[in-house]
Design brief:
Layout lengths: L1 E8 L5 H9 L17 E7 L2 E7 L12 H14 L2 E7 L6 H13 L3 E6 L21 E3 L8 H8 L16 E7 L5 H9 L17 E7 L2 E7 L12 H12 L6 E7 L6 H12 L3 E7 L8 H14 L8 E3 L10 H13 L5 H14 L12 E8 L4 E6 L7 H14 L8 E6 L4
Parallel strand pairs: 1-3, 1-4, 4-5, 5-6, 7-9, 7-10, 10-11, 11-12, 14-15
Antiparallel strand pairs: 2-3, 8-9, 13-14
Length: 438
Amino acid sequence: MTSIIAIVGRPNVGKSTLFNRLSRSRHALVADQPGITRDRLYANTTWRGVNVTIIDTGGFEVAEEGPFSSRVREQVIRALDESDRILFMVDGLQGLLPGDEDLLKILRHREKKFFLVANKIDGPEHDHLMNDFYQLGIHRVYPLSAAHGYGLRALMDEMISDLPKGNAHLEKDDQIRVAILGRPNVGKSSLINRILGFDRLLVSDLPGTTRDTVDTTVTWRGKTFLFIDTAGIRRKSRVKEKIEKFSMIKAIRSLSRCHIAVILLDAEAGIAEQDARICGYAVEQGRGVLLAVNKWDLVKTYPDKKRHIDDAIDRQLKFALFAPLLHISALTGERVKKLFEKIDLLYGQFSTRIGTGEVNRAFAEIMRENPPPFSGRKRLKLFYATQTGTKPPTFVVFVNVPDMVHFSYKRYVINQIRQRFDLQHAPIEIHFRKKGRP
């Protein structure tokens, strides 16, 4: 059994710093400016045998009105409703502020167990900074330094003292991890909300709404999919804010966590060079790639626009033509469920393992049917081949002169392997090595 702990508080009190410390990660963006976190972030961890899910939330402000303020408040309220325990964080250095009292009223109405935590208290000599918060009528205030860990053990021990212990594995190897990547405002968060059937992620017409990478777990036909929503990836020349640079870096790094990268394209805006760059990132890292053309509802009745998009994909993404293509609409839900079928098919190919005997016979037949060209008096000689890995399928071919293998012949061999082993959509890596070389 897993219990849920939500971290809530005003902007810039240190919620994301604590989230990162508890989750032993840097999933949440941290900066010295308020309002960085907007969506709910989730992370699994254990504390003294208790499995917990930690939720990081955006800064809660009752009076503040901005382009995202009301939506952030909604996300915080959802986190409160989901949680078993609430960690109410205040700023020990700033003291008690009206926003703290506003949030406390909301917590008391929910009648859930919450813990008041005064952050930015770096040691016992600063414990007196907590005194200001006792006027709230709370019997205990917990001192904490989220940055340095002071007070964390006592807080967590108390928080989990009456939570059930469990033996469930937090890291699931059978999860199919899917990163949603694309330019800003192509509909990444809208797509995940459509898959879930509710507003799990904050959505706005303003580009740059998503800043963190956000994980969401979905079960389909008995299989678990972990969807990773990411910030929109702009051209480097257009990335100006420091926090936006961090967001872009985290989006690209999400490729190292995923099996499949869904490259979301914008049917209305058309295919751009940046789409090719993003797709190139995924191909270079050997991820399975699925091309999903969003906002198809806006162009499907216009034959010329449809043809223009298809031509642009063939032209600008020709290096990834092995990737399956799906036309969808996150707004209407059109063909969104087909995503699971495509991802499942691609993941099956991505994970394929082929016996060494089959691999050797296939490579021998390929090179016999279409031998590589001579290099002077030498001809490429195959000794044996084997599959050395999956995700993606990776093969090593031992030959006499690896330098004789031209990239065009390597591409031919890859295409043949795809056809012979039903790997039409999977990325494939082939390495030619000299026999006897480690």
